[in-house]
Amino acid sequence: MTQRKVFIFLSTRPCDLLNILFWDNLLKIFSKIFFTLDSRGTQSLWWCKFCRALWSSIRRHRPRSDSCNTKQAHHQFPSPPGLPQPAMSRRAAMASSAAPRARLSPPAPAVRPPRKRGRSPPAPGSTSSWRASTENAAPRDQRSRWQGPERAPGRVWRQFRPPQPALPSSRRWVSSEDASTSTSGDTCTIMSYNILADYNARNHPDLYQDVPWDAMRWDSRRRLIIREIRHWDPDLVCLQEVDRFQDIAAGMKSRGYEGIFQRRTGDTRDGCAMFWKSKRLHLLEEDSIDFSEFDLRNNVAQICVFELNGAHKLVLGNIHVLFNPKRGDVKLGQIRLLAEKANALAEKWDKIPIVLAGDFNSTPDSAIYKFLTTMKLNISLHDRRQLSGLDSSEFDLYELCSSLKYQWSDEEVRNATGYPNIMVAEHPLKLSSSYANLKGNSNNRGLHGEPLATSFHKKFLGTVDYLWYTHGLECSKVLDTFPIGVLRRTRCLPTREIGSDHLPIIAEFAFTESLEDDSEEEDDSEQDDEPEQEVCTGQHVYPSSDSEAR
């Protein structure tokens, strides 16, 4: 009996069959089945046959796709004309029952127009399911917009990288707890900032693999550098790795800064630059050091004399020490020459105070840091390749030869000490570190009191930037760095908030009374036998012991 044949829409999995059972016209199908049965009371028999046919159809007509919905099942197994269609009324279904019965077969898929990306339309005999085009499509990683490093050599930062976490909005100032009352009231804020030359960033892409490509563009980094300087508004700015001085000078001029630039010799393009507020400071003398004249590579340093508000003078030195970790003798010689030149200039201007700023490319645990604080260093006790603390090689055949470990050639000794037969390097300045003298948080300060990190790239995380000062100045506050954990989460510098792989360090200095004048007054009071000399000596705020400690 053909009218008793049952055609339903089947799904791939039993769980998908529930979608068909909730079809709005399914009740009409079941009602038609039971009303057309014989009147012999064989409903239970036909119900068993119906269930048996249902599960056999599931095993026999399993679609190839993984899953489908009601609409897809309708295309896979269309209902015969005698049964109600999804969008067909009962009267229209009864009218279509008179049509000849056709063999059940999937309809021919409609040919879709090709997409804009150039995909070809499906073949006439292919499956019309939308999953067929997905299976034949290229993998997502091959269709990605970004190319891997093997397809774009030399431009590593152009590849896709996950976004970097944002840094805190601002850094905090750390003030001195025991500020002296003998300061004159005039303060001067000095910044030291290695801004990462664009030339160096392009030539060393391996150091910035985790930096988004847009954060490495010079235009965006220049805006961040200028914004950083404007935000902290220092009186004096010492910049290193400056290869586009005009771009920086144009942004600084609008804020009332004047600047000078000293380029390195040789084929390099970067150099050192100084900026100062023309309303507060006046440039009295300008000098520079070309270390190539002393066979100490092609680095340069700047030394200038400034006058603050027409009352106080100071010498400011700006240096970018050689980076090569294995040439500690050259690093030592460059720092020694800078200290000697700054001291000579200070003596010329009546022993005015000195500030040395820059990237010294030496860690606080290094022998060079000890040389700066103690004024001398016996180089025979150190390996020249370990003087800066940057050589992190774990195994070296040279280290195994103890007889050659601390051997220095005459040229290396001359570079470090200035003489070929003297093994002790000395400099004439009694220097103090601005950050080491002010207590900070353990999250961003090391054992020596220095910041845990002022520079961060793929191969280094540590401190190499310093602000040193001599007597006649007192550090009143410093701008603390970010906690070390926050920097590690960024994976590398620069970021979209910081325009360099270095952090700017800033210190505020207050001018104190001249220690030389105090000592002269003490000598004059001792020579006179007047009873008023005790009153005069009692007016001095700093005893001799305190001045030596500073």
From TrEMBL:
Transmembrane segments: none annotated. Residues 85-105 have a biased composition (Low complexity). It comes from the Eukaryota. Residues 125-136 have a biased composition (Polar residues). Residues 514-533 have a biased composition (Acidic residues). Residues 192-502 form the Endonuclease/exonuclease/phosphatase domain. Residues 63-185, 514-550 are annotated as: Disordered. InterPro entries: CCR4/nocturin_mRNA_transcr, Endo/exonu/phosph_ase_sf, Endo/exonuclease/phosphatase. GO terms for molecular function: 3'-5'-RNA exonuclease activity. PANTHER family: CARBON CATABOLITE REPRESSOR PROTEIN 4 (PTHR12121), CARBON CATABOLITE REPRESSOR PROTEIN 4 HOMOLOG 3 (PTHR12121:SF82). This is Endonuclease/exonuclease/phosphatase domain-containing protein. It comes from Panicum hallii var. hallii.
